[in-house]
Amino acid sequence: MCVECDEAAWGEGPRWGDEWSWFDEEARRPRGARYLEEIAETGWAVCTVPGDGLELPYGYTVGLTRYHGHPEVMVSGVDSCGAMEYLDRVGARVRAGERFGFGDEVELGAERGVFLAVDQPERLDIAQAVYGHPETSVVPALQLVVSDDAGRWPWERGWQGWAQVLYGTPRAVG
Fold first, then answer.
1. What 3-state DSSP class applies to 66?
2. Burial of 17 by CB count in 10 Å (0-12 exposed, 13-18 middle, 19+ buried)?
3. Which pTM value belongs to this model?
């Protein structure tokens, strides 16, 4: 469970200090080591990036490429707890052997999701730092776009869901 969702953590503040810095002062080690430990334990980790008033928050996986031969997955417009919930669901399905690609749809309980190929996977900077090579390869990524309650996508007329930045291009709407 993420720190934001853990009621006990509200009184203590975040366990990891500044979530966005590269060095964990409390543990006296690079923050990436925490991701590597989580990846070794579950097969992936979730990195979240806060919104700043100009950009929406987003989250993404680190480790699906290395351990499961699957593109990393990102989701936009949800807080860190929401991102972890969606991405952990997808990660568990990938770990169980499912594979997703551009245009694939997935059931997410009452909602649906569709995957877009991410045009700029460099946005997943920790995944790139851990598994990419700056001169030869970029770790591929898919974006999980979540439908509204009526099953419509953000690019469809009548959309009434939360704001999501599209980091890829959807298929043409028929």
1. helix
2. middle
3. 0.79
